[in-house]
UniProtKB/TrEMBL annotation:
Keyword Transmembrane in annotation: no
Domain Glycosyltransferase subfamily 4-like N-terminal: 15-187
Name of the protein in question: Glycosyltransferase family 1 protein
PANTHER family assigned to the protein according to its UniProt record, in alphabetical order: GLYCOSYLTRANSFERASE (PTHR12526), GLYCOSYLTRANSFERASE EPSF-RELATED (PTHR12526:SF637)
Ranges where the Glycosyl transferase family domain occurs: 191-342
Family matches, as InterPro entries: Glyco_trans_1, Glyco_trans_4-like_N
Domain of life of the organism encoding this protein: Bacteria
Taxonomic path: Bacteria, Pseudomonadati, Pseudomonadota, Alphaproteobacteria, Hyphomicrobiales
Organism: Borborobacter arsenicus
Length: 393
């Protein structure tokens, strides 16, 4: 099966890695001649995200549709789901691709409702971590993992962004009973151009969502430990937004670091890279974080936690990776400052990065999954018709 497709990406929060993934994927799909649209939440994101939407508006033949979607399950989901379903129904997609937990539920449920109306649509789901972050020993985790297992019957194809995510799914939910693929996030060719630090660059950079899952609190605690270890001050820039931002301001104040740590609003990653000599990724949980790929492709030395898919980006047993503990982060940060040249040699080679993480490779593999899902749906419809004819005979 070939031909141009009508593709709708559905997700909740237009910030962070999921939004970046959808933007890159949509851009590549438009270049391939497909008609693409986006349905997402209207209550998250700020001026930076608004500019990103404005930049891509002219590319998307099916448009950008934003409507309120709450983060957690609750009564408001009924109204939000109805609004989203009406939008998607009008767009008449061939492919509904859900990203993250909420987007995954919406895409698969709405795609199934469209099928009840005899409408051909492929239903794909990329977890991007999502509900997989829950602890399987808790009641909440068991509920969401049970829901994910049940939702497989509404799913044509699962797309994992890292081997870690795939293994976590198997461990917490079980071996997928439907077609599934591992497709790494990809970068544009221009993102492999080096970024040099500004003349007045800080020592360290944190860029990302301001929430504990991503480890800003660990980064701040590590800064204080580095100062104690080296017996001198260090400087840092923290770029991002989120509900927990005021708490990190207070943590900085209590640690006596306010004069040496600058907070900035979200900005393009490559612009932020020039603000410091080293980047720190202190996450407690990840799937396949774009920020790690982007920073390494730009030639930026990194201290990162060995969580999620991050070890898959680095060479096996890389000494640049640590557990998500302030003390271990501080140790590597100190090493980087004491001997920058030696520390830079711990990073994966640019050639290896280019060979594995290209946006064109990512888009081609996902397009293959789309066509495969549509072919599978066509075969199932043919079998259903044959069954009806057989019963009538």
């Amino acid at each position: 099966m070939t031909g141009k497709l009508r593709i709708v990406h559905c997700f909740r929060s237009p910030v962070g890695g999921i939004f970046r993934h959808v933007r890159d994927l949509a851009e590549a799909q438009v270049a391939a001649g497909h008609a693409v649209g986006i349905v997402c939440d209207s209550t998250t994101g700020g001026d930076y995200e608004e500019r990103l939407f404005a930049d891509m508006q002219h590319l998307l033949a099916l448009g950008i549709w934003r409507t309120p979607m709450q983060r957690h399950i609750g009564p408001g989901d009924i109204a939000a789901a109805w609004r989203s379903y009406r939008i998607i129904k009008e767009l008449k997609p061939d492919v509904l691709h859900g990203h993250g937990a909420k987007g995954g539920v919406y895409a698969r449920v709405f795609g199934s409702l469209l099928r009840v109306s005899r409408y051909r649509v492929a239903r794909l789901y990329s977890p991007h971590g999502g509900s997989l972050h829950y602890d399987e020993a808790t009641a909440t985790g068991k509920f969401f993992f049970g829901l994910e297992r049940w939702m497989e019957r509404l799913t044509d194809h699962l797309l994992f962004v890292s081997g870690y995510e795939q293994r976590t799914f198997q461990r917490k939910i079980g071996l997928p009973t439907i077609p599934h693929s591992l497709v790494y996030n990809g970068l544009r060719a221009t993102e492999f151009d080096p970024v040099l630090p500004d003349e007045n660059a800080a020592d360290f950079l944190y860029i990302g969502m301001m929430r504990d899952l991503k480890g800003p609190d660990l980064f701040i605690a590590a800064l204080a430990l580095v100062e104690n270890r080296l017996g001198r001050t260090v400087s840092a820039v923290m770029v991002g937004s989120g509900d927990d931002l005021p708490r990190y301001h207070e943590q900085i104040r209590q640690a006596g670091l306010a004069a040496r740590v600058q907070f900035l609003d979200p900005m393009p990653a490559r612009k932020a890279f020039a603000l410091a000599r080293f980047i720190v990724v202190p996450s407690r949980a990840e799937a396949m974080p774009y920020i790690v790929l982007e920073a390494l492709a730009a030639g930026m030395p990194m201290i990162a936690t060995a969580v999620g898919g991050i070890p898959e980006i680095f060479d096996t047993g890389s000494s640049a990776l640590v557990h998500p503990l302030a003390s271990e982060l501080a140790g590597k940060m100190g090493d980087a400052l004491l001997d920058p040249e030696a520390y830079c040699k711990r990073m994966p080679s640019l050639a290896a990065m280019k060979a594995r993480f290209g946006a064109d490779v990512m888009a081609a593999q996902i397009e293959t999954a789309y066509y495969s899902a549509l072919q599978g749906h066509a075969r199932s419809k043919d079998l259903s018709k044959q069954s009806v004819v057989s019963r009538v005979s």
